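In response to a reviewer's request, we include the raw inputs and outputs for one of the modeled complexes. The two entities were modeled together in a single run.
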Amino acid sequence: MAHIELKGITKTFGNHTALKDLNLQIADGEFFVLLGQTGAGKTTTLRLVAGLEKPTAGTVLIDGKDMADWGPAERDVALVLQQYSLYPRYTVRENLEFPLKPAIRRVSPAEIKERVDRVAKTLRIEHLLDRKTDRLSGGEMQRVSIGRAIVRKPRVFLMDEPLSALDAKLREALRTELKNLQMNLGATFLFVTHDQIEAMSMGDKIGVLNNGQLVQTGTPQEIYTNPKNTFVARAVGSPPMNLIEGKISGGEAITSEGLKLPLAAQAGATTDNRLLTFGVRPEDLVLESGAPAEARVHDIENHGVEKIVTLRTGEKFIHATVPAQIDLKLDEQVRFNWNPDKVVVFDGGSGVSLRHAG
Amino acid sequence: MTQIELRGIEKYFGAVQVIKDLNLSIADREFIVLLGQSGCGKTTTLRAIAGLESIDVGDILIDGQPVQHMKASDRDIAFVFQSFSLYPHMSVYENIAFPLRATGRDRAGMDEEVRAVAKTLQISHLLSRKPSALSGGDMQRVAIGRALVRRPKAMLMDEPIGALDAKLREEMRAEIKRLHIKQGSTTIYVTHDQVEAMSLADRIVIMHEGVLQQIGSPSEVYGHPSNLFVAQFVGSPVMNVAEASVADEGGQLSAKLRGASQGFQLPPAFSDILSTAKAENGNLSLGVRPEGVLVSREARDGFIPVEAHIIEPLGSHDIVDLKLGEQMLRARTKSGFVPQAGTTVWARIDPAQAHFFNTATGMSLGIRL
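The model returned the following structure tokens for the whole complex.
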């Protein structure tokens, strides 16, 4: 049970500023994902909450208490890293017992056993309890690492890319398991990743971090459908949102390649002739004869359930998702339209969404 | 014109058999992708075709001629690796021209060839640069250029874009495919990435532990996997697979997953086809991809009630975990279709997308409804 608040956090390393005036609230029991590329400041944020780093300015609050003078051990948080740091000569059971063993924790042997057994059951590693950790697969090792974090019932789970070293199939399975775990434990999670699928699929809330600044916070749906700027627009979704330069004239979008496409009425007549960027998701493009714009098929990517088609218009490439049954050939001429209700209009210069600019 | 044929190939590293009785026939101009996890034998197979690895049993034929005793240099095959292996002290031009120098071509002819290849790969503007001044994508283009320039009988590529970042990988994938269509050289391409295989291949060859699992076009492999390994290796999220039994009660056919409270109704028209499956009861697994699980928010005829457990919103669509008794089924829905976890919804399996497997052997029963 813990509420986390970061207030005006700045962190510098020498003359490099890792975080700039970061403000963030994580509600009790929330699964919060920080999404960003390498160097965005995700891990630094996590380490500040864990107490492994001290902020240059600002405060970290857990349950309303300023953590400035609290050491990592006193904060009662658990950290799970990408590299599993297990004791290789111990069995899985010994690894799980380890955090409970110190006398200071005052956990009775009977309770240790009960807690370890319960955790093993939750993570489906019961059959591995007597095995040495160097005889485990990557996924099993990561489950033991998570188990070791859970077993002492911390207030907060901090996870730093715990899935990125695993193969795709295992990542998929553990994603569900982690989410499941958070729902069962009702614990607060701060999860750091560069993988937008992990962020979208697991987060109750996502914070998008760019160059040490928090660009947007919101539910996955909000981030996906209503990105604050072009950076966020391209940070989630695969393939990412198409960003097409152009302007509005006579209520229509005119792209830099001269295509004319319809817009919803509220897109605004006030923006006539201003340089804009139109954002549209691949699934909101449709290929149909008689559609207003023309393109050539540059590439077709078969995903079984659907195809992702790269269309070429002039010098620009646009992605469209189409049903797997649609038969297309490379270099075929096609016509396409977009769903005008789903088009997000960004300022051409600043990249800020006109909806967010107000 | 290059056909490649592998006949009964076996290969051992010490006591470990890495390729087991591999038979494969590759047509002229075909783009073949060898797909599998690390250690499945795909790279060894490729290296054996190139002549970089000997084989213990079997024949490798290029255009009908056995080549397993020929040196790599005599097989006239080009190889592109994941690591770029360019000569760092030579310019891009010299790197591409290098394989031609040994052929004794005249200068003008060589120059023409190099420039033609550079144009195809859109690296004409880079010809005077050193490899160290190139991006990863450009380096790989040069490596491909060097392979193409001597017009080899076949191109072999071992994870050529595996080291590049996601965006560049996607661009290069499109380029490699377009290049293949233009040049028409027989190509064998190795990868562990199923999306890459699905996107590039005319036919995919799936390998697992040295054994060929299935050969087929991307849609065959996705739509008609020959066994459980293929079914769960191709496609993301993975195909749902659960032990099941098929019953026929008073003309009502149903397939019940183990641990589920209720079975999925199947149309009576499939009674004959399903008798094969019924015979396997006790040793039967049902597979269905997430898009083959149909979800309704209201009770409907033929749909059974299930509890939505975890919802993964992926933006363009959701993956919803449905709980039926002890079984979990993943379904693909429109985004926001199931409002929240814990909701009861109704589900059915699209019979046309149901796959039946023998649990013990993992083999598909080949039943399509």
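As requested, we also summarize the result in words. Chain B touches chain A through 37 residues (CB under 8 Å). The first strand of chain B starts at residue 4 and ends at 13.
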